[in-house]
């Protein structure tokens, strides 16, 4: 059906970096839940590739990790890393910042790939948000912990900013590399500000007048 | 792979109506859980397009909302509507009846689209049921509330009746419009009767003799 | 996109057997939760076809049960069987052993189908594991019970062994039938040993030194 309309070369090293970071968060959740290594590897894979898998299915592209021989071993490598490492070394602020970087990178890459496959800007932005956030949502739902969507952290918004800036720049045919870098930095900056100042969006505030 | 075997023109306005109704139920759940606006918009989208997305992936069609520029903004519009409106205005019987209409319309449209893509009648009926119900199931699972499948409401059955009548009429080559209207009305009537008389199917009743 | 690179004829009777076994486990969970028949049928279908559906979507193959008119009625037949039968007859050791056979058969078939569609060995093994385990995971998540991944049973490992042996044999171009039988027996043996001796993998054991 759909074919790539531009010869878009995704920055694959960035893609693998994002996958590795999310695989790490999946393995860490399995460690916190005291699972065995096989379950930990499964969580690493599910979290690392979940968002990109949904994106590829929806835009009609071949699922990236089924066709790329490096992605799955990378996820398993992160599981091994967590398995052999005492947990607290990873559970510090560094992980939160790495996760912010992964979220921003994945949101940009997801939007860019969707645009490259001929998807219109608004759905392409949504594909970027999905790529950045779905892996973590699947991880939390399968583990039975409250999903990141339900926590009051500013998490989807940075992904939306990164994907939106990417779609904006590519719609105006700015240079791809510059667009991607600026978009990712923009999303990362918002997530960083949210972490630093504990920013939150206001919640639905209409009183329940009937009960 | 699969291509539409009949030049089926789906009644797109009905499709958008169903999407809007389900997006509304997603936004309302987010309001009840006191989420922020971004999460509310995410829930509206997920609930509005979830069923149709699974259907399109399974029958090999391009995912409708990724290719249609109007669907996502419509879902966001429903989120805005819920955000600016006191909650109780929507949480009355009107919503239940609108949901019943959406369920019936989506079940018919899902079955009709699957048949149009050359799917056999039984799987096509299942595609109709899926289109009508999957959005709500995904919404409930991600939110961590008991899914509609687990409640004892008569909900899947009306969808099955609507999709079944649609497949029956189209298999006998009755006029498409008449078939769709009768099938949707049939499903809606059963859901309405279930709501009015609080109808339920009997549950599994064999005694647990061993424990 | 992808097309089968070898004229692989999957042993369809084995495939239907695995589907039937998993459909049975889905219906039984619905019975334990005292659901009505429609929900039971939905669970039977979801559990029976869930793993194969994800596999087919990811490797780019037509979804098997949407194109095969026998799979869905088979799942419903299993739901009928559970509905008319007192529960304890099925909840004995026989079911556990049948489930072990289904897991091994599905893991082999999933890996073989992925290899037949040109997927590299490591992702193909993962497709086998997914085919064997995803139906049960979806069943548990939708039902709101702890998923099989979270229990401490040796369950993913036998699937990995079966899929791994299958990929190994097919990579060395051994006879397909012999490879499949040996791989399935190997996976079944490990699952059987785990059931008989209550084998478990060690869990993540690093002390939480920081709290």
Automatic annotation (TrEMBL), chains A, B, C:
Keywords: Cell membrane, Membrane, Transmembrane, Transmembrane helix. Its main location: membrane. One of its GO terms (cellular component) is plasma membrane. Residues 14-85, 96-168 form the Glycine transporter domain. Pfam families: Gly_transporter. It is found in: Cell membrane. It is a multi-pass membrane protein. The chain crosses the membrane at residues 12-30, 37-58, 70-87, 94-112, 124-142, 154-174, 180-199. Belongs to the UPF0126 family. This is Trimeric intracellular cation channel family protein. It comes from Altericroceibacterium spongiae.
């Amino acid at each position: 059906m759909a074919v790539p309309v531009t010869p878009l070369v995704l920055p694959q090293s960035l893609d693998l970096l994002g996958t590795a970071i999310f695989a790490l968060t999946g393995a860490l959740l399995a460690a916190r839940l005291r699972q065995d290594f096989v379950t930990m590897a499964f969580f690493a894979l599910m979290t690392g590739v979940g968002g990109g898998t949904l994106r590829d299915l929806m835009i009609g592209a071949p699922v990236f990790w089924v066709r790329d021989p490096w992605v799955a071993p990378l996820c398993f490598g992160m599981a091994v890393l967590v398995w052999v490492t005492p947990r607290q070394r990873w559970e510090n602020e560094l992980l939160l910042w790495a996760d912010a970087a992964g979220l921003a990178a994945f949101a940009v890459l997801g939007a860019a790939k969707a645009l490259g496959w001929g998807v219109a800007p608004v759905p392409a932005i949504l594909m970027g948000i999905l790529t950045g956030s779905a892996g973590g949502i699947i991880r939390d739902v399968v583990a039975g912990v409250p999903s990141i969507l339900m926590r009051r952290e500013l998490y989807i918004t940075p992904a939306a900013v990164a994907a939106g800036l990417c779609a904006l720049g590519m719609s105006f045919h700015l240079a791809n590399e510059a667009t991607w870098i600026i978009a990712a930095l923009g999303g990362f900056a918002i997530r960083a500000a949210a972490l630093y100042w504990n920013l939150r969006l206001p919640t639905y505030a209409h009183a329940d007048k009937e009960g």
